Amino acid sequence: MEPATAAMIAKAAIAVGTNKKVWTGIASVIAALCLPFILIIVCILSIASGGADHNRSAVRLAFEGGTIPSGMPADYREYIGQMQESFGELDTVLGEIDNMTEGELTDRYLVKAVFYSLYFGADRVRLEASDYQRFAECFVNYEERTKTIENPDGSESEETYVVAVAVTDKVELFEKISTDYGTSLTYEQQSNAVNVWYLAKYNTTAPQEGDAFEDWSGWSVSGEVTYYDLPASEVGGKVVELAMSRLGHPYSQTYRGKGNYTDCSYLTMWCYRHAGITIPGTAAEQGRYMVEHDLTIAKEDLQPGDLVFWSHKPNGRFMNITHVGIYAGNGMVVDASYSKGKVVHRNLFDSDKQVLYGRPQ
């Protein structure tokens, strides 16, 4: 980032920094949404002008048009204009693809969100029509099918035709973009794309922690972790008791810590805090803490109270960790489940998505 740019961000932030609620909004945009640099600037400018719905308004400028704030630098206005032009090109190609589609149509918000993650604010040469065609076709598979038709003489015959089938699995999608379009998205770009998709289509933020990411069913994780032979203690049993005391409490990332609301990482942090041990507040940072403080163990050494970490999708965070739970013994875990909507005691699930085990005791 250029010094002048960094200074502009700092100046905008300082201008509204006295308002704690507003500053929290800035932090959530930068740290949680991880949107591209230009979107962060748009958000800050919107906050400074008093916009309460700053992040959603910024996405609408690119996806739906509208009046761009007059105080925005010319370069940024040009970026938004280029993106809107590109979206028009994509709509033309997608219209042709829709004519070949049977069943679910291609999700245009998703196509544009991925394109946005790749190109918004980036220096690039102007794309050709063939580039838009190749990009859009990454979101479908072409299949040859047959149908029976009745001939004028009353006889029947088989006719072969080609249909476009929308790709809904995100892992398959990004693999196709890499092979067919020739561009591999980083985990951060993939995370940005999903965040923009949620904001543009659903007017909400994408879940960053949870155990329900069906669109990423093919996601596999890898990486080497050093394991340590750590002693167990009575703290583990206390942590499990605390976790069990919260069974049935409702899941919410937005309201975690208010009343009985919790999410996966708040539950683990709360249990350990009440057992006299402090750990970070998100699943990924708890995982990082385990690794950096030599508190990692092998799966076969799990004891009650140990932490189990999952990666259900790439999210740009440490080891792409998306979920954490407390091992309760006998192959069971207590966790605040996004898919169940509450704190549950269940089998230690998704063994192929478990990436880390820790003992903060």
From TrEMBL:
A single BP term in Gene Ontology: proteolysis
Domain NlpC/P60: 233-361
Organism lineage string: Bacteria, Bacillati, Bacillota, Clostridia, Lachnospirales
Gene Ontology MF, one: cysteine-type peptidase activity
Name of this protein: C40 family peptidase
Gene source species: Roseburia amylophila
Keywords, ordered alphabetically: Hydrolase, Membrane, Protease, Thiol protease, Transmembrane, Transmembrane helix
Classification via SUPFAM superfamilies: Cysteine proteinases
Bilayer-crossing regions: 26-48
